[in-house]
Amino acid sequence: MSQSHEDNIEHWIEAHHRVEPASKSTNNQEIHVFAIERTPVFGSQASAGKCFDIAFGFGPANFSVEACFDLSSGSISICLYVKIPFFSKQKLGCATGSTTEGISIGFDWKIVSGKFTFSIKNGWLWLSYDIKVLGTSWKGDLKLIPLPFL
Questions:
Q1: Of 46, 48, 104, 128, which shows the fewest CB atoms inside 10 Å?
Q2: Considering only CA atoms, which of 97, 43, 103 is closest in space to residue 74?
Q3: Which pLDDT score is estimated for 49?
Q4: What is the reported pLDDT for 62?
């Protein structure tokens, strides 16, 4: 692999990845958060807001979030998915609300159950979680992505 290609990969990872250090609320495991911004190319949605794909995992459950912010109305819509080995990706739910109030999605599917609450604090999208994955409980808060446009 060429040096410039390695530099590109490192820069991409640096710009789209952060690590939440291991703590009691993460069952002493690091949580890796990956995020990319999706930008509509055509139509009225092209300038209406910002959408992000965010991914993180707890144990064998890999969660993905589609979060869209409508800048003109001050609303946020979130869809939550989970991918567990040997199962196809499963939609756990969607919710819409204002950027000033939290949005909660409760779920109970196969080996994952619990509740995620998304809120905006100090210019960041935060996740409060109280979940169970394969009998292991996870409860705490996770800083997901910065929102400098809000």
A1: 46
A2: 97
A3: 78
A4: 97
Residue 57: which domain range? 3-146
Radius of gyration of the chain (CA): 16
Banded pLDDT at 93 (limits 50, 70, 90)? very high
Distance CA(143)–CA(122), nearest Å, equals 10
Sign of CA dihedral 119, 124, 130, 134: positive
Residue 109: both structure tokens together = 């599917």
Q: What backbone torsions phi and psi does residue 56 show, to the nearest 5 degrees? A: -160, 165
One-letter amino acid at 82 equals V
Q: How far is CA 128 from CA 24, 66, 141, 144, in A?
A: 14, 16, 4, 10
* The total number of structural domains that make up the chain: 1
- pLDDT surpasses 80 at 48: no
Sign of CA dihedral 43, 44, 50, 53: negative
